[in-house]
Amino acid sequence: MTVTPEQQAEIEELRSHPHQTLRVVSEGMEKHLYTAIPVLDHGFVRVIDYMGDDAAICQAARVSYGKGTKSVQNDEGLIRYLMRHWHSTPFEMCEVKLHVKLPVFVARQWIRHRTANVNEYSARYSILDREFYMPAPDQINAQSVVNNQGRGDLLSPEDTARVLEMLKGDAARCYDHYQTMIDEDGIGLARELARMNLPANIYTQWYWKVDLHNLLHFLRLRADAHAQFEIRVYADAICKVVADWVPFAYRAFEDYRMGAVTMSSQMMDCLRRMLSGETVTAETSGMSAREWREFQQVLEG
Question: I want to staple 97 with a disulfide (CB 3.0 to 4.6 A). Which of 162, 190, 209, 294 is the partner?
Fold first, then answer.
C-alpha cells in the first residue's frame, strides 16, 4: 500500500484531535475513521465520515424520537424484518464517505453503481503518480471456457512470467511517454490529452459517498465469489468496516442477501416435485441448460 507522507500526516492529525458531538456515534465505526486499510499492491480504503448506526435504521422505520426502542432484541428483530422483506428506505438513513485508491479498470467497474456521490482525482488538473497494479502470479489466469467474463485455470509459470514482463514494460513505457508529453520544457502537451496514453492499471483515487442500502447492494454483487478478484478485495475490506459500523444490519445482510439464494418459479416447481419423490431431469425441468446448471449448484450448496 502506498500512502503519501502528506496523506499519512493528515491521518495522524485527524486522529489526534477527537471532536465532541451530540449526535449518536457508532463505536465500531469510530475505530476505522481516517485509517487506511491496505488493498492490492498500492490501494487502500479509508473512512472519511459516516452518519447513523443500527438505531438510526430503527428510528427511521418507526419515525420516532430518540432511539428506536429500549429493547436491543426488538431493534435487531426489526432490522431483520426490514431486510427480509426488502424494506430499503430505513437503511438509506445511514451514509458513509470513503476515500479509495484503486486501479482505473477497477474504478470503471465500480462506477457502474451509480446511486452514490463521487469525486475523482483529476488527471486534467494534476499529474498521476507512477503507480500501477501488478497482479500476483497466483492471480494470472487463462480465460474461462465456461464463463465469458471470468477466469479459468492458472497460466503456466513461463506464461505468467511473460505476462508480468509485458505488463510492467508496457506500463513503464506509457508513463515515460506521458511524462515526456507533459514536460513543460519539452512538448508541453495539455494534461487532459496526455492522460489518454496511460494504461488502465494505473492508480486513481476518489471520494465515494453512499447510503447503506446502496452500499449493501454494491457488496452483494462485488463481495460475491463470482466477482472479479480485483474489485472483490475492496468489497471484502468494506464488509469488515460495515460489520463494525452496523452489526445488526450486517448480520441480517449476511443471512438474507449474501447467504441466501433466489429461485425462479420453475426452480420452485422442480424442488416441490423432487420433495414429493419425483425424479426431475434437465429435460423434464422446463428450464434452459444454463438455468438447470444454476439450479444444481443451489441444491449442492
Answer: 209
